[in-house]
């Protein structure tokens, strides 16, 4: 009976550890290399990612990342979390594509551009769809930090 109780407790603890989200840092997302690849749809070369084994180990898992909230569409259609504020983010040429994560929120977020948030969601790596970011958080939620 004692070993049965121990086994149940051990399974609970292991299950909890496996299901808990991991807080990633921006340096974790730098585990990627980019190579130019011709895209016939747009008739231009795009830098396409090859993800490293470290960041790939988090694909499909719930993760957290702290960063600047950006509504880049201006109308609530496309949300990002960025390592840098809007004035110096990837789209302004001050950083690389590994410094932004597209976020598919479960509910419309109440945040304003450049507020610091903690975003939590399931990490998806996007190696080939040039119409989306390389990193995507699905089923996401957010918490205001500042």
Automatic annotation (TrEMBL):
The keyword Signal is assigned to this record: yes
Signal sequence annotation: 1-22
Keyword annotations from UniProtKB, A to Z: Signal
Protein name, entry field: DUF3299 domain-containing protein
